[in-house]
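REQUEST ID: PR-0412
SUBMITTED BY: lab tech R.K.
PRIORITY: routine
TASK: structure prediction, single protein chain
INPUT:
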Amino acid sequence: MKNVNRLLLAFVLLLMVGALATSLLSPENSVELLANPVNWLVLTAGFFLIIAFMATFQALDAMKYMLAKKEGRLPAEEPEDQEEDEWLSGIMQKLTDATPVEEEEKVATDHEYDGIRELDNNLPPWWLAGFYISIVFAVVYLLRYHVFQSAPLPEEEFKIEMAEAEAAKEEYLETAANLVDESNVAMVESDSRILEGEAIFTKNCAVCHAKDGGGGVGPNLTDNYWIHGAKIADVFSTIKYGVPAKGMIPWKDQLSPAQMQDVASYVMTLKDTTPAKPKEPQGELVTEEAMETPAAEEASDRSATESGDSTATPTEEEALTSL
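STATUS: complete
OUTPUT:
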């Protein structure tokens, strides 16, 4: 069928352009592009649109041929296969610049082996184009990376990417720190964060608990007597929700979760220190054994207590204490 080779060539060129465009995208965008069915629909529609255009041009050529034949300006039959072969041969000739078979004597050399003669054909234009492009690329690469140094070399690029990855890691850790709550809070290990907690405590808490934690309006934070629990989760919860019945405001709207964790960790460091003017003990004595009670066991005990007295309604103070 006429123009079949042209159609296949157009389709191959379309695929090459699509592959080149996809390779220029990032891996994530490439996967998204290939996975989107709408893109495949558009590609298919484009392919059939090309077929429609070629069929239209073919129909117009056929009408021109019929009119010319009717007017006697063309022979009765047109050598369609020969015309198509000449079109393909013309393309191959432009790509290879090869000497036609009937003119090989002009480029033949004296070298012959086993009946095979060596020809002095010109280098194919496509090969020469690739060769010249590689030279231009090498010159640009040399000037950019080694002469003007306007772009980093692979080793420098690796260091830059590692620094960016470290910065992204730090940013993630800062974000992750704000995901903490009373169910997963833990004592911070960083001295810098303990110092940040001390600064927040001095600014916001020292007015009631004294700067050294000895207590004032609020209870003493250095002894083993606790009103609302002695564990890090209890201290964090008390800071977060406050004790409105006793004048302590909730800090969850003023401090981030990470800041409340820092303050709670600093409060834990005040235990067994010696304040200047310690306030009398308040609350219940908490032993080391109680401090080390696993969270799962404590939750089980709490659940058993609640199931044993499910009709009891806790008072406001008891509800705040449970926090």
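NOTES: The chain has a mean pLDDT of 77.
REVIEWED BY: pending
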